[in-house]
Amino acid sequence: MTNKSIIQTEHAPAAIGTYSQAVKAGDTVYLSGQIPLDPETMELAQGDIKEHIQQVFKNLSAVCEASGGTLQDIVKLNIYLTDLGNFALVNELMAINFQEPYPARAAIGVAALPKGAAVEMDAVMVLK
Predict the structure, then answer these.
(1) Please, which residues have CB within 8 angstroms of residue 117's CB and are 6 or more apart in sequence?
(2) Tell me, what CATH number does 91's domain have?
(3) pLDDT (tens digit per residue) in 60-74
(4) pLDDT for residue 24
(5) 100 — phi, psi (to 5°)?
(6) I need a surface site. Which of 45, 57, 79, 102 has the fewest CB within 10 A?
(7) What residues make up the domain containing 104?
(8) Are the C-beta atoms of 125 and 67 separated by less than 8 Å?
(9) Contacts for 9-12 with beta carbons within 8 Å, 24 or more apart?
């Protein structure tokens, strides 16, 4: 049995269901999906889709930091979009938030996301 620990930070939105912000098992951290919630208000961030995508990266970053890592330690990123027309914008913002080598990634078009969000991301991170 692998030792696992639960990661929790007030700098990212609190879980809105029966899950943890992240779970660390060994040197691997599994980050739950983040939508563009403001952690202070628990409401969708103000602004357009660009600001929403950036808020998701901020939320993921906060959970990474609480786990002892950074976005750069992410090895797999899953992106869920209600409009795949926003995919180019995701690429643009990934280039700002990540450095090469980039993580493996999947981008998936979905019909709907929690709280009416247009974007959600989850990730797997490996700590050094």
Answers:
(1) 35, 36, 37, 44, 52, 82
(2) 3.30.1330.40
(3) 999 999 999 999 999
(4) 97
(5) -65, 145
(6) 102
(7) 4-126
(8) yes
(9) 9/62, 9/63, 9/65, 9/66, 10/39, 11/39, 11/62, 11/65, 11/66, 12/39, 12/59, 12/60, 12/62, 12/63, 12/66
Neighbouring-strand partners of residue 14: none
Q: Which residues of 42-76 are buried (b: 16+ CB within 10 A; e: fewer)?
A: eebbeeebeebbbbbbbbbbbbbebbebebebbee
| Structure-block tokens of residue 111 | 């019909």
- What is the C-alpha to C-alpha distance for residues 69 and 74, in angstroms, rounded to an integer? 9
Structure confidence by residue, pLDDT tens digits, 6-59: 999 999 999 989 999 999 999 999 999 999 999 999 999 999 999 999 999 999
Number of domains in the chain: 1
